[in-house]
Specification:
Elements: H1 9-14, E1 20-23, H2 30-36, H3 43-47, E2 53-57, H4 63-71, E3 75-79, H5 83-95, E4 101-105, E5 120-126, H6 144-153, E6 154-164, H7 167-179, E7 182-188, H8 201-208, E8 214-220
Length: about 220
Amino acid sequence: MRMRKKRRLEPRMEALLGLLLARGRPCLNLKEAAENYRAPLNYAEIFGNARQVELEIGCGNGAFIAELSRREEKNFLAVEVVTNVIVTAMERVAREGIDNVRFLNIPAEILPCYIPRASISRIYLNFSTPLPEPSRARQRLTSPRFLAIYSDLLQAGGEIVQKTDSEEFFEDSLRNFEAAGFDVVSVDRDLPAGGDNIVTEYEAAFRAQGKPIFRAVAKRRGV
């Protein structure tokens, strides 16, 4: 089912432009943008400090990134391709007065257009769509083509943290991490809800259904 467009979507987005660093695709298609367009972000100008920068891809309604930003003295970029969804995340951050989060309303394929190489310390992939059909394997956010992008954005020793309820997707991701030059340093096939874990809306729903939560941390090789 297609998501119904939120009321007054464009005026709401306009009101939040101070939080939005990029929107849409800057060229005619994704391939053209990824190959030809560069507008690298200046983190010092954006955030006014030299803290580490972390990235969430697929931020949804912003619950995870908002809570993380309160816990950590770092800077955060939140990416969400669906405008109808990212507006809710942006409104949450604005409402809660959070000043260390900014947003990109773009496809993950064109992240290199904006994010400087080797500038991200950690990437979060929280409950990305599993896309179980073999024909859509290339579109999964832990497919080899996306891991090549992340590897370029991450600092040496930078990490990818993945959480999912899909065991098939998880096992496929573990294989892809290793093949792409990452060391899988942590694997949990039934993640406890307590401790430092931030339970998102999706995660709470999956736990209520009795589903185990899978989590992996993969570290980029290099010195």
